[in-house]
Specification:
Helices cover 61% and strands 9% of the residues. With 92 residues, the protein is mostly helical.
Length: 92
């Protein structure tokens, strides 16, 4: 039961994560695709280093590790694009 409760909490919290569109006044669509690809790659590497993809029996904490790693990777992706000059605009 603890495992189910943790999964439900993670799903509910994930729904609260902000979603962003990114803008840059000078970059083309091709540049956006390149930057997005590179930042997604960096974020996925970061997620793996933070325990993303953890597998374990119920109650082992693997689901929580995956959730927190995914949230950290999303933040890493946002920071990567902002470092390249993009502005994150929350989607309402």
């Amino acid at each position: 039961m603890k495992h189910l409760t943790l999964i439900v909490c993670c799903v509910l919290l994930a729904g609260c994560a902000p979603i962003y569109n990114y803008t840059h006044p000078q970059f083309s669509e091709a540049q956006w695709k390149k930057d997005r690809y590179e930042c997604k790659h960096q974020a996925s590497m970061y997620e793996a280093s933070q325990g993303g993809g953890a597998v374990g029996p119920p109650g082992s904490g693997a689901a929580f590790m995956n959730f927190t790693a995914a949230r950290a990777a999303a933040e890493h992706f946002k920071e990567c694009l902002e470092a390249r000059g993009y502005t994150a605009v929350p989607v309402e």
